[in-house]
Structures are given as structure tokens and as C-alpha cells.
Amino acid sequence: MDTSTNTGTSTDNFRTKLGFILAGLGMAVGAGNIWRFPRVATQYGGGAFILAWAIFLFLWSLPILMIEFAMGKSSKKGLVGAFKEFVGENYSWMGSFVAFVATAIMFYYSVVTGWILRYFFFFVFNSAKNMDTNSVWESFVSTNSLQTFWNAPVFYQFISLLLTSLIVYFGIARGIEKANRFLIPTLFILLLFAMVNVIFLPAFGKGMNYLFDFKLSQFANYEVWLNALTQSAWSTGAAWGLLLTYAVYASKKEDMVVSSTVICLGNNSASLIAGIIIVPTIFSFHTAAQSMKIMAEGNEGIAFIHLPLLFLKMPAGQFLIVIFFLALFFAAVSSLIAMLELPVRILMDFGMRRKRAIILIAAAAFLLGLPSAFDIRVFKNQDWVWGLGLMLSGLFFTIAALKFGVDRLRKEKINPFSSVKLNKGFNFIVKYVIPVEFVIMLGWWFYQSIGWGKGGAFSIANLSIFEQFSVGSTLFQWGIILLVFILFNKKIVRFLK
What we know:
The chain is mainly α. The chain has helices at residues 17-28, 31-43, 47-75, 79-87, 92-125, 133-141, 153-169, 172-199, 204-212, 222-235, 242-247, 256-284, 288-295, 299-312, 317-349, 354-374, 376-404, 406-414, 424-450, 471-487, 489-495.
């Protein structure tokens, strides 16, 4: 099977509009929707957070996704080639950086996908009754010896990458589109099934009150707004370059505004359904103080330690545990597919055939994901560094739009291919709102990081490049990658066909 010509142009496109939208939803809806959104929403204002999160969908995520869509569909190239087309060869390094950030996330995201797959099989064959789920989790993440390879994170990381690579190998129509036609509807059916079961919990209303409780005073809390912005930015896939990559394969009739909006709204719907499942489940079996403590323990604690025990307290609990991890796995795989296709598309732009590109990228993903699989501290550091890197990626997409001309982008690249026409409000958001959001958001994260010493005081350790969640570690890793791509920018551009 051959899906590219010698010039790197695609001969394999999405066959239907529905197929493209489902692939876009697969790109956006990932593990973060299911385990991160409920935690952040309850910690930062409930209903006020949800409203702010919805506002930022239209003030950050959707405009950036439209920029991505326009760049990919117009250039018919991956990230590096698209940036070259839109802002010139001297700025192609921005596309290289965006591509590296998304690919670096893929390295450890494949580990997460492996964790989920392991837990799915674990609960298929084991009962959670009387189980110490905390010990099971600690044992699993620290198990990486050859003697127990079948039970190790590395093994399930390999299986997850192998499955994803096979899907991407079959190309867009036969692989990615067909897989998402199954994965995404099934994911939503599984989530809705779990939600229906949660509705019948005796304290369902109590949990819903915590999730949607609206207090006007919360709008005065800057943390509500900043966490809502980061959740929207990272959850929708805005600035990852994933939608740009899929847009390369979109048909000429694909509606940019409508498709981007459906993807964003579908993503937020999945997050809300997950919140309705998880928050009432936790609050139904714990006091408010205990529940908030659980929610504060982080994504891994919620998904792998607490929820299995709580589901067991429900009718058909063992079955619900299996359904939950199956849904979580489908969400993770659908996103991993897009993450793998992104660097594959770039190598195809360099003239490499799909088969060889997949083998190279999958092998690199497995090897470079090993440090995160073997050491949870490395995993958390990489999640911190490259999660923040998405903000810089968002800025680069905005710069691309500004250099190309926002009004020109709207009139020439978006509106002619959209049934809903954008007005000058789009120009204002891209020119002024998004840059201000970037400065505030990044400044807040760095301020918080530097102050994460004892008692919230300044700590010099947080400037160290060896600290897990330090500004120093973040800037050091960003700086190395940026320097490499800037220095080798001309050579990289020459490879583009």
C-alpha cells in the first residue's frame, strides 16, 4: 500500500465529512477529558470554572484550531512545511518546535495508554473486592523486570504502540478514519452507559451540586480563569498541530468553521459526561473533605486507585470497572493515533514512504518513552515540561496567523470554505486576546513554579534543571530544542519536497 507520491503529497484522504469529524473528535477526546477535567473542575469553582472553561473554548481553543485547519488544508503539508508556506523558510523552526512538543507528549502518552490497557485486562480477570488498589498501583508502576515483563508498563506501552501503528499503517481512509468510526461512537456509548448507572446512586444529586455549584464570587479568583484556560487549551488539542495534520487529508468541501466547532463541542461534551460519572461516584461514598482530598491526589490516583473501589460499591460494579477502563483506553488510543500520524506526515513531506516512517516513529516513541515507563518521576517531569510547551506552540500559531495576515487568512483561507462566515471579531481575538492570554497564562505558571518552596516561599531549587517541576528544567529543555531547530532550520527546510 502506498499513500504518498515522491513529492510527499497525499493520495489518501478522508472519504466522508463524518469520518473527518470523528477523527477530529478522536484527536481531541483523550484520557485528559476523563480523568483531568473532573478533578480540576471541582478544585477550581465548579460551575464558575465550567462557565470560564466554555468561554475560553471560543477565546483560545477554537480560533487556534481554525488557524491549524487553514494551514493544513491550504498547504497540504505537515507542520514544518505548513509553517514554511505561511510564514517563510526563516520561521519553519516554529513548526519544528510545535511538532516536537506534540511528539514528546506522545512518548509518555503511550505509557499512559499502556497503563490503561493493563488495568482493563487486570479487572477482566481479577475482582476488585477486598483489593488494596494503592498497593496494586504502586507495584505496577515499579514493575519493569524481565521476569515479569508481561505485567510491566513497558510491555503494555509496546502493545499500545503496536496497535496504533497498525491503524496508522493502513493510511487515512482504511486506517485512521475506519478506526475512529468505531472508537468514538463506542467511547460515547460506554460513557453514557456508565453515566446512566451513576444517575441511580443515592447521593447523585450531592455530587452534581459539587460539580455544577455556581458561586459568582469565584469569578474574582484568578486561579479559576487560569485553570479553565489551560484545561481548554490542552483538552481540545489546540496548538498541538494534530488538526493541522488531519486537515492535510481533508476534502476541498470540508467546512472549516463547522467541523472545528463540532470537534470542540464534542470534546467538551465528553469532559462533562466524565465529570458526571466521576464526581458523583466519589462524593457518594465519601464526605466532602475526603472527596476533595481524593480529587487533589492527581490523575493517576483518581483513575487507578480510587474509582475501582468506588465502582465496586455500585450494582454490577465489577462490570462498570471494565467498561470504564475500556472507554478510557479507546479515548487514549484515538488521541495516540493522531499523535503518531503527526510526525509520520512530516517524514512523508521529506519524501519518506508511510511504511518506513511509521516504523521509524513507532520505534523512536517506544525507546524514548522508556524513561517515563521505568521512572514515574521522569514521566511527571515530561508531562510538566511539554504540557507547558503547548502554550508556546499556541503563540507560534498566532504568530503564523499574524505574519500571514489575520484578515487575509480569514478572507482567503477560511471563509471561502465555510458555510458560517467569520467576521472581524476573529481578527480581534487572534491579534489581541490570544497574545494577552499567553502572557498571563505562562507568567502565572512560572510565578507559581518559582514559589513552590516550603510555605509557598521562593525556592532557588525551582530554578534547578534537575528538579521535577522547576522553571529551570522547563526552560532548559525548551531552550535545547529551540536552539537545535533554529540552528538547523535551513538544512531541515532543504529536505522538504
